[in-house]
Every structure is written in structure tokens, then in C-alpha cells.
Amino acid sequence: MAGGNVLIGQSGGPTSVINSSLAGVVDGALKTKGVGRVFGMRFGIEGVLNDYLVDLGSEAPSVLKGLRSTPGSALGSSRLKLKDEHFPTILKQLKKYDIRYYFMIGGNDTMDTIHRVTKYANENGHSMVGVGVPKTVDNDLYGTDHTPGYPSAARYMALSVLQAGVLARDMQKVDQFVIFQSVGRSAGWLPAATALARGGDLTAPHVLLLPERHFNRDAFLQAVAAAQKKYGFASIVCGEGLTNADGSPVSVSQTKDKFGNVEFGAMGGTSAAMMLHRMIADEFGWRGEFQVTESLPMCAADRGCKLDFDEAFACGKQAVKLAARGEGGVMVTMKRTNKPGEPYAIDFGTISLSEVANHERPMPDNFITKDGFGVTKAFLDYAAPLVGPLPTYSSLAAKKAKA
């Protein structure tokens, strides 16, 4: 690095491993020649606007090491949407602290923030290099095989549906169906991961509802009826962003965040799981339950994948390497290097921040079954090495005793 100080931020919803990425950036920056001080912005870009930066270089080594397994967003997060009037204040602060290297860990909106801030600074005479570190449990960032945070959240989902499926099977004389709702605004990567729960005599989940496919009430109820008839109960997993054919949310939520995104868990809205529950109960007269985890998959470090923690840290380190070479305006990406049937392996690449900010990555068609209610072997092959092995549970043979 040519000199100057480093600024790091976290933005948007957390993941179980976002602090591991933070630790990776800090570790890389402190070990790179030419770096002055390493600052963190308190509560995202709001920390810059409010002149609240944290001296990360003064933190105890044990604390920085501990971040690698700590959930939440240690610096504090923000969903502030930048307006034109914010930029002069931001530039003033960047100059005040001599910030020359700017890293943010986040999703699409975060990459847009990095792009806009560095562009404004460079156009106004303050040379800066900005690099994005990918993060999202939704796994919908464009240009990367997967995002840090997705493997752990996917494992959370698979474990939850695996264990809830055992419960639902055993309670089928009480509840004939169960609905599990996943976070994920417009991509079905997380609900799809629950298909990994199937194995042996465990059949749940039976019906997947992915945001990539519009909701069809009649086809859905037919699929539920078929599952209940075959298995004695129906296990349904839905994405929170499920929409009808006209684009309206099944959840009927009308609340939006500052970026214009529908907030499916907001007060005043009804979750997709609740609406589906009503449909099934009204149609068949069955008793059932719904399970809505909201943000729990984003912070469940106890269910995190070692692979995910390690890759998150490595992405942070890679971001510093790129900045040291003067490669700004990009986000770190991961790409698989193994061929089918070979052990999982990745390498790093880059994609421009503007491309990430303006695209989303839904599940490809070849990952979704033709009826829209399941996933293909291609998806299972993709997701299995990320999630890792799941536990196996015993089932009674339950042979009827003779008198």
C-alpha cells in the first residue's frame, strides 16, 4: 500500500460469519506495509457521518481473534440509504482521518455504497481504493459461487427442517401439516437448502415454495394434499418473498425499507407462512403449525460451518491483497475450481462493484424441478459441500405386536 489509513464497515443484516470477515480485513491490514491506522465505522456509514470511528488497531489481539467465531455485527450495522447531501460530509471525514483504503462487508446495497463513496472521493481530489467483501445469507450476490454467511444459514435451515420434520412425523395425529418460513427476499437459496434434510426414512420437506416461481394456490393445495396422503403429514418450506402471479407478496406486507424493499417481517404485515396456514386449514380443515425464524439464521454461530468461518476470514484477507495492488472498485468473489466428483475447492476472483449493485442472482432453472415444488440433484450437489454432513436419527421399525 502506498500509505494512508484504512476504514472498514459492516452493513445490512448480519451473518454468523461477518465478524470473521472483519477479522480478516483487520489482520491483513495490520500486517501490510504502508498502512497507517485501521479504523472501523460505528454503525456503518452513519459512523462516518456522525464522526464515530473505532480504532481497531488498539483492540487486544485476543478480541480480534475472538471475532472469528462471534455472531452479530461487531462494529454495528446500518441500512441508511445515502443521499446526495451526505457526500460532502463523508468526504470531509475521509480527509480528516486520511482514509485511503475503504472496505465494506455486505450485500448489493453495500457494494453500491462503496462504489458511490469512492467515486465521489476520487472525483473530488481525494484518492481512495475501495474493495467490497461479500456477505449475505440470501446467497443472491451476483458474480460469486456463494457468499460467506450462506453455508451457515443454509445449515441452520436444513437442521431446523430436519428436526422439525421428525417432530411433525411423530405428531401427525395431532398436526397434519407444518410450514417453515425462511428469510430471503427474492431468491430461494435458503429454502432450497432444506431439501438436504431428506434421507433414509426421513421425507421432509415435501413441498418447497421458492420466490423464483410465482405462487399458484390450486397447484400448491394439490401438492400438500398429495404429501399428506402419502406420508401422513405435509412439511412445507416457503421463502418469505413468495409472490403471486401479479407480483404481489403472498405475505400481503406493504411495509418497505429505505431502499424500497418489502419488509416481510414488519409490523402490520402478515407472513407468507401465516397466509399458507390459513389456506390449508380453510381448505382441508386440518390443524397445523407454522415456524418463522426471522433473523435467527443470520446469527446462529453454534450452527455455523467451519468452512464458512474460514472462507469469510479469507475473503477479508483477499480484499486487503487487492487493495495493496491498487485494485479498487471491485468485490471479492469465490469460484469453484473442482470438477464434478472431486473434493470441493475454491479460488478467488473479482467483479466490479457496479455490476454487483445492479444485479441479483436467483437460483438457476436447472436447480429447480419442473413442477416448481422441489430442487434437482444439481442443486443438492452444489449445496451439500457448503452445508456439510447432517446428523442421522433413528426411527423405530414400529412393527405391530401380536397378542
- Tell me, what's the shape? elongated
Mean pLDDT: 94
Radius of gyration: 23 Å
Helix residue percentage: 25-40%
Q: List segments where confidence is low: pLDDT < 50 over at least 5 consecutive residues.
A: 264-269
- What distance lies between the first and last C-alpha atoms, to the nearest angstrom? 82 Å
Largest sheet: 7 strands, mixed
CATH architecture of the largest domain: 3-Layer(aba) Sandwich
What is the overall number of helices?
Answer: 12
Structural class: alpha/beta
Number of domains: 2
What proportion strand? 15-25%
Report the count of strand segments: 11
Query: Order of helices and strands, N to C?
Result: EHEHEHHEHEHEHEHEHEHEEHH
What is the CATH topology of the largest domain?
Rossmann fold
Strand order of the biggest β-sheet: 3-2-1-4-5-10-11
Describe the structure.
With about 400 residues, the chain is α/β, with parallel strands linked by helices. It is built from twelve helices and eleven strands. About 35% of the residues lie in helices and about 15% in strands. Strands 3-2-1-4-5-10-11 form a seven-stranded mixed sheet, with helices on both faces. Strands 7-8-6-9 form a four-stranded parallel sheet, with helices on both faces. The model is unreliable at about 265-270 (pLDDT under 50).
